[in-house]
Amino acid sequence: MKPSERSFARRLDLTTLQLFAAVCEHGSIGKAADKEFIAASAVSKRLSDLEAAAGTALLYRHARGVSPTPAGESFLHHARSVLLSLDRMQGDLGEYAEGIKGHVRIHANISAIVEFLPEDIGAFAKQHPQIKIDLQEHLSGDVIRAVHDGAADMGICNPQADLRGLQQQKYRQDSLVAVLPRKHALSRRKQIGFVEMLDFDHVGLHSTSALYLAQRRAAAEVGKVLQLRIQVTSLDAMCRMIDNGLGLGVMPDRAFELVGSVGDLIAVPLTDAWAARDLLIVARDFEALPAPARLLVEHLLSKT
After folding, report:
1. pLDDT digits 0-9 by tens, 121-137
2. What is the H or E stretch that residue 180 is in?
3. Closest by Cα among 265, 203, 200 to 233
4. What is the C-alpha separation between 210 and 216, in angstroms, rounded?
5. Is the pLDDT reported for residue 86 higher than 70?
6. Contact, 140 vs 210, CB < 8 A?
7. In a designed cystine with 179, which of 7, 147, 153, 249 is the match (CB 3.0 to 4.6 A)?
8. Of 65, 53, 55, which is closest to residue 26 (Cα–Cα)?
9. Could you give the C-alpha distances from 225 to 58, 199, 205, 215, in angstroms and in order?
10. Rounded to two decimals, what is the model's pTM?
11. CA contacts within 13 A on the Cβ side of 290
C-alpha cells in the first residue's frame, strides 16, 4: 500500500461511510441527517473532509439535492460492501456469544445439494447444534476455485473439474439417466446410449456445469453436436421444460426421483461409462481443517 493510500484508509471511519451511503440513498444531506439524528452541518463537514481525503469530488451538489459522481458511485459500492461485511461480522460474533462453537463453510454442486446433502447435513446439525454450517450452491469449477482461494473450507463436486492441488475423498455415487416425456419414442427403452439422444433437442444446465461439459464431450467423441435448445439453472426447471416439449435432458437418477414428478416424465438409464459418477469431497488439506470441518467430513464419509 502506498503512503497516500494508507493515509486515506486511516482517515476513514464507519460513521462517515454510513452517512455517505445514507446521503446517496436519500439524495439529500438534510434527509440523511434527519434519519441519522445528526446536524446537517456536521454531515456536510464530514463529506467535505471525505472528499478532501479522497482527492476527488464524490458528490454532485445541485438545487434538488445531491447525487454521486462516477468516483462517488465507486466509493458507494465499496462503502456498502464494508458495511455489509461488518453486519455479517456482528451477526457471526453474536452467534458465538449465544453458544455457536464452530463454523464450517462448504460449497457444493447442484447434484450433491439436491441428492444427498439435505439429509446428511441435517443429521449432522442435529448431532452438533453448536456448529454453524454455511452451505452454498455453485458449479463444480466454482467450487474448486472457492476451496483453492480459501472462500470455502471444503467442497463437493464431480471429478470432471480440475482438482490439481487439492486433496479428495469419495463421498457418494450416482448414475445419470435420460429424462424424456412419457410419450417420447425412446421412452419404452429399458436403457439407451447417449448417442441415441443426439438426434433430438436438449434442455441443459449451465454451459460450465460438469454435467453439460460431460454431455458436450460425449457428443464430440462421436462427431456430433449437442443440440441445446434451452439452458436452465436447476433440475426441477429442466423437468418442467422437458415436460413442455422443449427437448430431452440428462440428470442423476436420485435427483429425478426427487424432482421428476413435476410432469409426465420417465427416466431411462444411460449405458455410457461416464454416466456412472463419483461425488468428491475436496479440501486443500484435510488434516489442517478446523475441528468442526473435520467432524463434518467424517460424518459425510460415514454415509458413503
Report:
1. 999 999 888 888 999 99
2. strand 167-181
3. 203
4. 10
5. yes
6. yes
7. 249
8. 65
9. 52, 9, 16, 10
10. 0.64
11. 15
Domains 102-171+278-301 and 175-276 fall in the same CATH topology = yes
| Residue 203 one-letter amino acid | V
Give the residue carrying C-alpha cell 455479517: 88
Convert 191-206 into a string of H (helix), E (strand) and C (coil). Answer: CECHHHHCCCCEEECC
* pLDDT tens, residue by residue, 243-259: 999 999 999 999 999 88
State the number of CA atoms in the 13 A half-sphere of 221 facing the CB. 10
Domain 3-97 falls in which CATH fold?
Arc Repressor Mutant, subunit A (1.10.10)
- Cα 155 → chain centroid: 12
Q: What is the pLDDT of residues 176-215, one digit of tens each?
A: 999 999 999 998 999 999 999 999 999 999 888 888 989 9
pLDDT for 99:
53
Place of cell 445541485: 62
At position 96, the amino acid (one-letter code) is Y
**What fold is seen in the domain 102-171+278-301?**
D-Maltodextrin-Binding Protein; domain 2 (3.40.190)
With contact defined as beta carbons under 8 Å apart, do 291 and 183 qualify? no
Residues, the chain, total?
Answer: 304
- CA-closest candidate to residue 171, choices 22, 29, 298, 30: 298
**Domain spanning 175-276 has what CATH number?**
3.40.190.10
Alpha carbons 126 and 157: distance in angstroms, whole number: 24
- Is the Cα torsion angle 228, 232, 233, 237 positive or negative in sign? negative
